[in-house]
Amino acid sequence: MDNLSSLTGAQKDELMDQVKQQIAVANAQELLTKMTEKCFKKCISKPGTSLDSSEQKCVAMCMDRYMDSWNLVSKAYSMRIQRERTHL
Amino acid sequence: MSTDFDSSSFSGLEAKGGDKDLQEFLMAEKQKAQFNAQIHEFNDFCWEKCVDKPSNKLDSKTETCLSNCVDRFIDVSLLITNRFAQLLQKSGGM
């Protein structure tokens, strides 16, 4: 940990970029896992020998809606946080 | 984890200014990550509650349900926390 204090500015920038990137990757992975789980549940009622075209369409649509929903929830949550802040 | 980033790890005066940047940066990123994790959790169960068969777009009823779901969940969480605190107090604390 001591050598953290001897980082140059450029090294520090690189470290920050790496942290940001790793967080972004983790976030994308979480979203991917959740979408796969949720859309499998919604679209594949009886797993057949292949993914038929209606299932594929359903999964594609489900993905888009899941991201819509994510954005909406994010908006609602940040609005609530703001409201709570002004009430304090 | 938390001990890795506390101020005691950063000794030396000249380093202090720069490491403060790093510390602030990490704090901000941590907060953002916690916010994101919370959204993943909300979206997980509000999706179950509100979304039927996925269609071309989220209809307005579903949209209302989703934002109500977030707000009511927070209400319930606050209510339970407060009532639980009261119960603890009434029973003479722990």
From TrEMBL, chain A:
GO terms of biological process kind: protein insertion into mitochondrial inner membrane; protein transport
Cross-referenced Pfam families: zf-Tim10_DDP (PF02953)
Annotated localization: Mitochondrion inner membrane
Gene Ontology MF, one: metal ion binding
Main localization, broad class: mitochondrion
Keyword Nucleotide-binding: no
Keyword field: Chaperone, Disulfide bond, Membrane, Metal-binding, Mitochondrion, Mitochondrion inner membrane, Protein transport, Translocation, Transport, Zinc
SUPFAM superfamilies attached to this UniProt entry: Tim10-like
Comment field on protein domains: The twin CX3C motif contains 4 conserved Cys residues that form 2 disulfide bonds in the mitochondrial intermembrane space.
Name of this protein: Mitochondrial import inner membrane translocase subunit
UniProtKB/TrEMBL annotation, chain B:
Protein's name according to its UniProt entry: Mitochondrial import inner membrane translocase subunit
GO cellular component, one term: mitochondrial inner membrane
Highest classification ranks of the organism: Eukaryota, Metazoa, Ecdysozoa, Arthropoda, Hexapoda
One GO-annotated biological process of the protein: protein transport
Keyword annotations: Chaperone, Disulfide bond, Membrane, Mitochondrion, Mitochondrion inner membrane, Protein transport, Translocation, Transport
UniProt subunit comment: Heterohexamer.
Coiled-coil region: none
Domain of life according to the entry: Eukaryota
Domain Tim10-like: 24-86
A matching Pfam family: zf-Tim10_DDP
Annotated InterPro entries: Tim10-like, Tim10-like_dom_sf
